Amino acid sequence: MKQGVPTGIPPLVLDTHRKRNLPMDHRSIYAPLLVLLCLLLSACTTMLTSRPLAPKVDVDSVKAEKIGLTRQNLLFRLSVSNPNSFDLPLQTLNFVAAVDGVELAQGLSAERVTIPANGKAMLEVHVSTSINKLLSQLLLATNQSRKNIAYEVRGFVKLSNWPARIPFNVDGALENPALR
Description:
Elements: H1 27-46, E1 56-67, E2 71-81, E3 88-99, E4 102-109, E5 113-115, E6 120-130, H2 131-143, E7 148-159, E8 166-175
Antiparallel strand pairs: 1-2, 2-6, 3-4, 3-5, 3-7, 4-6, 7-8
């Protein structure tokens, strides 16, 4: 028995030349993790990190498409301006149009449009409304001797890269056609 070495305990042997047979090489774990990390980082670049400013929506024109006995189909042409320094990928836009505070029409567009950074895009929205409601409100507004007829368009836009709906509200006045 050697002095200084306890009995029953084998001496420590360092084997630097023999490769251990592990079930999976550690390097093979890093490659998929690195790919997953790259995918996650690229996905994060498409998500906005701060709430976008609401787009400005203007009514460019309203045209009658089809007039029936009880319903009228209208085409709203909307100009949507983006005040942000990044593109807004519009997923849906819905709105309510009112004349003199009376709701006349509701519209929904699922047309996917990208509004360029600090730019604008045109959007056409088909709307159906009651002919009785529309005519009675327009007759009431035009029979009065007011110079302008007030309108309001309010609604929401949903972006494909932002989780919440963004509200918008447009007020304006149309020249009374009865006073021309």
